């Protein structure tokens, strides 16, 4: 990649996202989501973990065959069996990638029972094997953040020498904070021989609610691939949300002078489909894609937005593909919003008529939490009947 301002978007909704307990998707649903991601401009789709089950293998193969633009990636542990199975699934893609990982922190080394040198040998061997199968190999140091810094430099150097083209530095347990996330990437870029020849990726979990901030901090320090999921779906508290990092880069170009290939107008549709097929509702106040993310109910906000939308909105609903109105009618709404809303519904009112409807609207809003268009139409029909 020659454009140093380009940030690659690596979507793992179908792998890390699907690892959320209860978020299992069917073969056809995965294929549909993958096609939407491909069409939206995602650079790399992690389609699954082929060794995990026959179903995962079939889904990754089908996505590899059907993809048009995106690199299709599969996950594998650091052994030949996993890597071979992964290759069998992704090899059908026009642009396949093998992603292999091993836990490098003391806790994870304890689980695999490998000493530091044995692990180095394993990384060299498995990355070389993957690279003999596929030109595009991503290597991840699972739990990188809790790995001793000098050892992290050694394992990253080993993976680069063995042929990895992307090095991923995951915050597997969502433990880091933005400054540390940036410092680690900066340190690796400075200290590891060959670091300038590969792409560094950031993969953050959201256990402390920091996944978006940590990913952006890593980019500021030189990472050029963000691993993320739609709606932030993922293990435990989830992963970095794709819609948040992409919109942050778009909205704050002054502080984040980078570009992505994402067609942001497709975000809302993907968010809704992922929510439907995974069965995970999106929280109402979720950044960017929550039901309330662009809704204004208080009279002061509604009035401001009606006069100049930028008073209370930093991005346009249309930028993420929202076509519905951004005015929510409720007991906090004012006259100006009611007049605009009724005009949208086809009712142009004189001032005295508006006063009358406004009184009845407030009485209704005190009784009912949300006022829908149909409620307003009923109010207007009532009004006409009584005059
Ligand atoms: O969180 C993590 O460390 C992972 C790796 C497999 C990349 O998901
Ligand atoms: Zn993860």
From TrEMBL:
Reaction catalyzed: 3-methyl-2-oxobutanoate + acetyl-CoA + H2O = (2S)-2-isopropylmalate + CoA + H(+)
GO molecular function, one term: acetyl-CoA C-acetyltransferase activity
Coiled-coil positions: none
Record's keyword terms, sorted: Amino-acid biosynthesis, Branched-chain amino acid biosynthesis, Cytoplasm, Leucine biosynthesis, Manganese, Metal-binding, Transferase
Transcription regulation found in the keyword field: no
Gene Ontology cellular-component annotations: cytosol
E.C. designation(s): 2.3.3.13
Top class in the EC scheme: transferase
Sequence ranges assigned to domain Pyruvate carboxyltransferase in this UniProt record: 7-268
Residues given in the record as Mn(2+) binding sites: 16, 203, 205, 239
Known cofactor(s): Mn(2+)
GO biological process: L-leucine biosynthetic process
Signal peptide residue numbers: none
Source organism superkingdom: Bacteria
Pathway(s) where this gene product acts: Amino-acid biosynthesis; L-leucine biosynthesis; L-leucine from 3-methyl-2-oxobutanoate: step 1/4
Function: Catalyzes the condensation of the acetyl group of acetyl-CoA with 3-methyl-2-oxobutanoate (2-ketoisovalerate) to form 3-carboxy-3-hydroxy-4-methylpentanoate (2-isopropylmalate).
Subunit structure: Homodimer.
Family: Belongs to the alpha-IPM synthase/homocitrate synthase family. LeuA type 1 subfamily.
Protein name per its UniProtKB record: 2-isopropylmalate synthase
Full-sequence range covered: 1 to 387 of 519
